[in-house]
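Q: Okay, next protein. This is Nucleotide-diphospho-sugar transferase from Cercophora scortea. I've checked the sequence twice, so it should be correct. Can you predict the 3D structure?
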Amino acid sequence: MAAGSARYVRYILVGFFVLAALYYISNSGPIIPPSPSYESSRGNGQSSSHHTTGSTSEGKDSSASAPKENTTPVKSTKPNFGPGLDPKEYPMAMTPSDPAWNELSGIKEGPRVNATFVTLARNSDVWEIARSIRQVEDRFNRRYNYDWVFLNDKPFDDTFKKVTSSLVSGKTHYGEIPKEHWSFPPHIDQDKAQKVREDMAQRKIIYGDSVSYRHMCRFESGFFFRQPLMLNYDYYWRVEPSVELFCDVHYDPFRYMHENNKKYSFVLSLYEYVETIPTLWESVRKFMKNHPEHIEENNSMGFLSDDGGETYNHCHFWSNFEIGSLKWLRSQAYTDFFESLDKDGGFFYERWGDAPVHSIAAALLLKKEEIHFFNDIAYYHVPFTHCPTGDKIRADLKCHCNPKDNFDWKGYSCTSKYFDVNGLAKPEGWENQTD
Ligand SMILES: Nc1nc2c(ncn2[C@@H]2O[C@H](COP(=O)(O)OP(=O)(O)OP(=O)(O)O)[C@@H](O)[C@H]2O)c(=O)[nH]1
Ligand SMILES: [Mg+2]
C-alpha cells in the first residue's frame, strides 16, 4: 500500500516536471539579447503627470495583445513583433528583390525600436493633424504600431484626444509644456524684443510679429526632447499638421536609423530667409570658438558654408519632417550648443527657426555619415514636395505624388549640395527636374 502511493507521488512529480519544462520552452525569449535601443529598454524614463493614455485596442502593444497562457505546448504563444526579438532574424525589406517586400498587410513581424512619433499642436489643429496621422498610419504605422506623443502649451481638450487616439495604432500620450519652456527667459529685454516684432511686421516678414511662433521655434530647438514623456524614448519622428506621405514605407525607418548609426535625417532642404537670422552665424562661430571639443572633425561644414565657415550659405534641412536620435539631442554637445545660442537671444531679437538651429547642429556636431536623406519617404509640407526621382522607384513604392512637383533638384533646394558634399551619386533623370 505504502509502495503503491509512493509510485503515484512519483508519477505526479514526473508529470509536473514535464509540464513545467514544456511551459518554459513555449515561453522562452530570444537567445541573443536585443540592444538597449530596441524597445525592451522602454520604461527607464520618467512619466509625466500630464500623461494620458489614449487608445488601447488590439495590436497596439505587444503585452496587451499577447495571447493568454496556453497549456498546449505546440508552438510559441508570444507575438512575433515588438520587444525582445533578435533583429538578425528579421531582415528588413529595403528593395523589391528582398523577401517580404510585398508583405504590406497585417502587423509586421520583427523587433521594434524604442521610438515614437511626436507632434506639437494646438487644439485647433485637430483636423489638420488628423489628416497627417491618417497618411502616416496608412503608409507605415498601421503595420508597426509605434506610439505617438502630442505636446501643447495648453491642456489638450477631449475632442483632440478622442480624434487622435482613434487614428493612431500605437499608444497615444498627451503632455502639457511647462511655462519655463514656453516663455521669455529672464535675460531677454522685452522692449527690445517688441520693437523687433513691430519692425518685422512692417517689413512683412512671415511670422515676424508673432510671439507664439518664437516660443514654438525655441521649444522645438531646445525643449521638446526633454519633456518627461519624451524621456521614455530613444528616437523620434516629427509630424506636423497637414503634411502628406505619398509612397508606401516598406521598412522601419526607426530601425534603419538605429542599425545604421544615423542620428538625424531629412527629406527636404532649402535656403533660410536671411531676414530671420542675420546674426545666427555669428552666434554659431562664437560657440565653435568656445567649444571646439564639440565640433566633429568629419563634419558637414561644406553643406553650410561655401567659404570654409567664414559665412553661412543659409542651407538647412526642413525640420517639419525629422527622424532623429533623442539621445543626441540630449547630449552635452547639443545642450551646450542650444544654451549658447539661447543666451545670445536671437529667438526673440530676430526670429531664428528651429530648422536652421537643428541643421547647423547636425552639420557641425555629427559625422557626415550620421545624417541621412530618406529618398524613399515622399513628403509634402506647404509649399514643397519631395517626390523620389525615377519612374521605377515611384512604381515600386506605389507613390501618388506628381514627379513634376519634386523640389530636390530645383534652384532653391540645397539637396544637390548635400549630395555633392557627401560624394553621393544623384538619381538618374535629376537633370530633367532642375526647373
Ligand atoms: N501648441 C502649440 N503649437 C503650435 C503653436 N504654434 C505652432 N505650433 C505647432 O508647431 C508646429 C510648427 O508650426 P507651423 O505653424 O506649422 O509653422 P511652419 O511650419 O513654420 O509654418 P506653416 O507654413 O504655417 O506650416 C506645428 O506642429 C504647429 O501645430 C502654438 O502656439 N501652440
Ligand atoms: Mg507647418
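A: Here is a summary of the prediction. The longest helix spans residues 2-27. The pocket of magnesium ion (ligand 2) is lined by residues 240, 320, 381 (CB under 6 Å).
Q: Noted. On to the next one.
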